[in-house]
Amino acid sequence: MLLLAAASTVMADNISYTYETTLKKYPGSVDGEGLDGARITVNATVNDSAVYQDFFGMPGVRMNNGATLTVSGASVAANNGTFVMPKLIFLPGFSGLFTLFGATPLVMLGSGGMFDMRTNSFPTAEGALAVVGDTVSLDHFAPAVSRDIVMFSSDTTFYASDTSISAVLVAGPDPAAVPEPAVYGLLAVAAGLPMLARRRRVLSRR
């Protein structure tokens, strides 16, 4: 009973944030990762009841785990696919996705090279007004206009073009209700104790 109750999924509304752009290399760049002309899509979600905390003297919110970078159209086949991004925060006033340490996220590609993903955009009118303690809102994320700043791979400098930034509400698991891996271990132990006790009783009767 304990295991079933703890492992049940609690659904909640999440804001799904998507940043999509096409990479164009600067003249003279080597482009060993084959990303020139590739389309890249970043997707990250956050619970719509999350509250802005103070990050580096400005409001920010931790995004849910599981943010991804998807690459298509790369000339190096290994770099086409979906790659895991580090834990991220969203800063509505700055604005864009950053690591917990305030840096732009580095993503390891399939070829083993690194890509410096930058999603900087101009704040939305509502996002610019957000303060610490406010609840996140869909219009803090989009519609937004990209700053189209340069991005970098291991050996190449790119600029972004044909960029779109969107955000929608989607149903998904409430991250606050999902047990941590350590909790799953404790639940497994708790579930196994009655079975262990029963086995001991059976053995003692032999």
Unreliable stretches? 1-8, 180-197
What structural class do the secondary elements suggest? alpha+beta
Range of helix content? 10-25%
Q: How many β-strands, per DSSP?
A: 14
Largest sheet: 8 strands, antiparallel
Oligomer: single chain
Our measurement of the CA-to-CA distance between the termini, rounded to an integer number of angstroms, reads 30 Å
Biggest sheet, strands in spatial order? 6-5-2-1-14-13-10-9
Summarize model confidence as the mean pLDDT: 84
The gross shape turns out to be globular
Return Rg in Å.
22 Å
Amount of beta strand: 35-45%
Number of helix segments?
Answer: 2
Order of helices and strands: HEEEEEEEEEEEEEEH
Write down the domain tally: 1
Features:
4-stranded antiparallel β-sheet; alpha+beta; 38% strand; 15% helix; globular
Q: What does this protein structure show overall?
A:
15% of the residues lie in helices and 38% in strands. With 206 residues, the protein is an alpha+beta fold. The chain has one domain.
